[in-house]
Specification:
Largest sheet: 2 strands, antiparallel
Shape: elongated
Oligomer: single chain
Strand content: under 5%
Main location: endoplasmic reticulum
Radius of gyration: 25 Å
Strand order of the largest sheet: 1-2
Order of helices and strands: HHHHEEH
Family: Belongs to the jagunal family.
Number of helices: 5
GO biological process, one term: vesicle-mediated transport
Number of strands: 2
Transmembrane segments: 40-62, 99-118, 138-158
Helix content: 55-70%
Number of domains: 1
Keywords: Endoplasmic reticulum, Membrane, Transmembrane, Transmembrane helix
Length: 183
């Protein structure tokens, strides 16, 4: 438009460059989706730490079993759910598609599958609690099955949104990759 120290191009005042300074929409979407996924990962880490604390208290007998019950079987494989979150975080700095895909697949295996198994494992105890009012396991005075179902519901939502946003992020990255190949 203008040479260094030389005359400006005829018919311009130098303000016609702003249309070229917009960020492409897929880059904007990538940044916002990464932010949302990070929030979900941090929420997942919080849930994971609570389950880990409950398991440690139960196994090391730091509190009596009438205050904190022993963990259900589904909680052990759920501890592996931290791995998909770490893979997701590792995929962000360089938009690594393979890490994000591995994160999504392992979220299904290590996060969603144990939650489904946990809902099935606790169902007979939940039926007994709500039909007969009998609970045999407690977490700080609350029925353990009620507390853990609440954890399952919240964790399922976190992982569901995490998978949804990861898929949208993957689509955004593919759009970016396809545009680079066209050039």
């Amino acid at each position: 438009m203008a040479s260094r120290g030389g005359p400006r191009a005829a018919g311009t005042d130098g303000s016609d460059f702003q249309h070229r300074e917009r960020v492409a929409s897929h880059y904007q979407m990538s940044v916002s989706l990464k932010s949302e996924i990070k929030k979900l990962i941090y929420t997942h880490v919080g849930i994971w730490l609570l389950l880990l604390a409950q398991m440690c208290v139960g196994h090391f007998k730091l509190l009596p079993h009438d205050q904190v019950a022993m963990p259900y079987q589904w909680e052990y494989p759920y501890l592996l759910s931290i791995l998909p979150s770490l893979l997701g975080l590792l995929s962000f700095p360089r938009n690594n598609i393979s890490y994000l895909v591995l994160s999504m697949i392992s979220t299904g295996l290590f996060s969603v599958a144990p939650l489904i198994y946990g809902a099935m494992e606790m169902f007979p105890m939940a039926q007994q609690l709500y039909r007969h009012g009998k609970a045999y396991r407690f977490i700080f005075g609350f029925s353990a099955v009620s507390v853990m179902y609440l954890v399952v519901v919240v964790a399922a939502q976190v992982h569901g949104w995490q998978l949804y946003y990861s898929k949208k992020l993957l689509d955004s990255w593919f759009t970016s990759t396809q545009e680079k190949k066209k050039k």
